[in-house]
Amino acid sequence: MPAKSVNLIFTDSTSSALAEVVEEMAPSAIFLLADANTAQLIARPLLESTPALAGGQIIEIPAGDQSKNIDTLSALWQALSDGGATRSSLLINVGGGMVTDLGGFAASTFKRGIRFINIPTTLLGAVDAALGGKTGINFNGLKNEIGVFSHADAVIVSARHFATLPYQELTSGYAELLKHALIDSPEALNRALAYDLERANLDELQHLLRESIAVKERIVAADPLEHGLRKALNLGHTAAHAFESLAMEQGRAVAHGHAVAWGLIVDLILSNMMLGLDSATLHDVAIYIKEYFPRPQLSCADYPRLIELMRHDKKNLTASRINFTLLSAPGQIILDNEVPPEKITPALDILRDLVC
Predict the structure, then answer these.
(1) Residue 175: in which H helix or E strand, if any?
(2) Residue 254: is its pLDDT beyond 60?
(3) How far is C-alpha 148 from the chain's CA centre?
(4) Higher pLDDT, 63 or 141
(5) What is the C-alpha separation between 326 and 334, in angstroms, rounded?
(6) Residue 216 in contact with residue 131, Cβ under 8 Å?
């Protein structure tokens, strides 16, 4: 089944781009979903400055990935119902990945599906969650356990939203950009590793972002439901989701992109061990991540639980097999690699040696 065509818009004026899209869609009612942070900073000013959104309603949810749960989802469905939403209504998701994941899932299931637009306000949201059709919530202590494939009708990307991002938010998003560069080519990886995150130039970042999103677009178009090639986008994520779930269990907050950065190193270590990926690539990426990203809080005592969490990953072919996407070289993806625990444990040791 081909992927739904998504109207991807890069702009310096979110309001103007959104007005044009909304006027063409002519929805019966408009709802803007935002968390407690973006509701006041972005969603409300957008509503007030865009005549095409006149009469729109803001639905505010608590900030943080812990809100991406069934209770918040139920409250969102209730707000849509109370607000008189119909199948011809429109939900505009304004925020980071939590908002676009949750909002996309709510829109896709409310009345069997209403239209939705994603406006990512974080680099991570722009390069990863807002585009590609994956929606969902966390459940039973596991990341993204419940969800559907459903593509936004439009995704509006403006680097202006990233100008005030805290440094940690910027690095979190950049991990996904690194992932796309590894998937793409040695040249793309070199460009990504040359970017100075501490002195972020937004024009340069916008160029890298366009290139990165193009990688994801190409893969999603070829494999919208993740039956084959799209599994390439899972690079770094088997370990990353385990790192995030462990942190949730321990009452710690770990940004998704930071977990992905550590997961990329794990996958590059495994790629070196199992597929002969050159050590230079592994070390170049590890040096970059050590310079710009926080250190993982891991001990040997965490390994058994991390491996158990990896067994629950959706990418596994069976409950007993842990599946990884690996690389033989930048741009050379090898899918569906079953990795036994006796190889994962030393990879976690090497991760700690490289970046801690």
Answers:
(1) helix 167-184
(2) yes
(3) 15
(4) 63
(5) 5
(6) yes
CA-based radius of gyration for the chain:
20
| Spatial CA neighbour of 219 closest among 206, 210, 232, 238 | 232
118: Cα separation from own chain's centroid: 13
**Nearest in space to 109 (alpha carbons), one of 128, 139, 85:** 85
Assess contact for 243 and 262: CB atoms under 8 A: yes
Say if residues 243 and 254 touch (Cβ distance below 8 Å): yes
C-beta neighbour count of 340 within 10 angstroms: 10
Strands 142-149 and 332-338, bridge-based pairing? unpaired
Q: What is the pTM of this model?
A: 0.83
* Angle formed at CA 313 by CA 260 and CA 138, multiple of 5 degrees: 80
CA 166, chain centre distance (Å): 17
Report the relative pairing of strands 30-35 and 90-95 from DSSP bridges: parallel
Amino acid at the residue 18:
L
- Quote the CA–CA distance of 148 and 150 in Å, as a whole number: 6
Q: How far apart are CA 334 and CA 325, in angstroms?
A: 6
Give the integer Cα–Cα distance in Å for 127 and 178.
Answer: 10
pLDDT of 2: 45
Distance, CA of 228 to CA of 18 (rounded, Å):
34
H helices, E strands: number in the chain: 14, 10
- Kindly report the backbone phi and psi dihedral angles of residue 91, in degrees, each rounded to the nearest multiple of 5, phi listed first: -110, 125
Q: H-helix or E-strand containing 328?
A: strand 323-329
* Of 132 and 112, more confident: 112
Dist. CA 265–CA 55, nearest whole Å: 48
pLDDT band of residue 337 (cuts 50, 70, 90) is: very high
Q: How big is the CA angle at 170 (ends 164 and 175), to the nearest 5 degrees? A: 165
**8 A C-beta contact, residue 184 and residue 46:** no
Residue 55 near residue 26, CB atoms below 8 Å: no
Torsional sign, CA 216, 221, 225, 226: negative
